[in-house]
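Write out this protein's structure.
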Amino acid sequence: MPKEHILVVEDDADILELIAYNLTQQGYAVTGVESGEEAFAIIDKNRPDLILLDIMLPGADGLEVCRMLKRDTQTDDIPIIMVTARGEESDVIVGLELGADDYITKPFSPKVLVARVRAILRRAQAVPLDDEAEIRIHDLIVRPGRHEALVAGERVDLTVTEFRLLHLLAGHPGWVYTRYQIVDVIHGSDYPVTDRSIDVQIAGLRKKLGEAGDYIETVRGVGYRFKD
């Protein structure tokens, strides 16, 4: 079976070597470059399965590289993990809004890095969510075909928006969604609603789910995810 190809874009040679070493040890094929321009040259020749992208780069920074990749239909489906220094929370949020799948902060544990890479690659290879398939997580059951949610066998009365929100998060456990992404998915990109209104809807959904509401985690400064 071919090795999954990971492109690492990092201008710090020591960090690039550390990342490449740990990923290679796990059986991945790794290509390392130090700039966005070099990254595009590699992508044209050997499309990667995932990109680890530093935010602070010479020339085009990581955010601009991410923006360009996500605007191109030839590369918009390549998963991206942003690599950032602590204190750059605003840049992380921008990166996720541009379409990045996850982020990791420096300094990082090699084990955490490998776990994040594995998780993103699993998502990329996963079968798309069936809008009619039943979802079972812990004591929660979501039945899209019946527009029904049950906790410990008891039916939970949800609004249309609350149900869509639950279906989205529970259907992709572990996946972090920004508030803007949630708005786009459950309402559509032209829907006149603020991203902060999602916080209110999340609070209402958690309350109705009771103890199962704890499965919905807040990712500070980013958005929400469902515990897997």
